[in-house]
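pinging the channel bc i need a second pair of eyes. not urgent but kinda urgent?? the chain im working w is below, pasted from the shared doc
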Amino acid sequence: MSYNFDMSSDFVDALVESPIGVGLLAVLEAKQRPDVLPWEVQMEVSDAQAMDRAAKWAATTASLGYFLSEAVRIAEWAIGLHVSGAPARSASAYRWADQRRPIAIALAARLKAALHEPLDLNNQEWWTSPQERLHQGEGPHDGGLLWTVQNPPALVHDAVTDVWEFIGNTSRWHIDIKSSPKIKEIHRPADWIELVELCPGKRRPSH
């Protein structure tokens, strides 16, 4: 997971163009409205005053941890590929995405420092469950999954472990990288396409 974008405008565009982004903007508006549930994504109409309040909240209060935890939860229970009713929710969120752009702009301004922070490989962590010892060159011995993430804020830990379906204790590891790896940052679908075109003969990742 990387938080780095070339420009804040890229981040704004990503929010209003991606399913998770438009879902997040919808939820931020919903939290400012008494007539819908605070986690609602699908709405018949959008409320300009609620959007304005959401933009002011995002500009003054939003934290990176809150932003990431909400984004992960929305992907898990609202608009994920395997979530019932997800297409209708996504369609509704996209319908009002342009009107909610001020919320995205406020988030970009609030999170500017984190968005422009360079990727720090020394801050990268490997997570696995259940807790066990990792041996050099090997993964979990019980066939469990091993995930990597750039040390997320504490507020997002529960959301990450839920969406990864970790059960029981979660173990976090720092693994030193001895050589200079080739890094390809993935922020949007076009990045995946570029990666496939650069490495057409590589095997697809298993996770």
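so Residues 8-115 form one domain. and The CA atoms of residues 64 and 111 lie 6 Å apart. — does that match what u expected or am i reading it wrong
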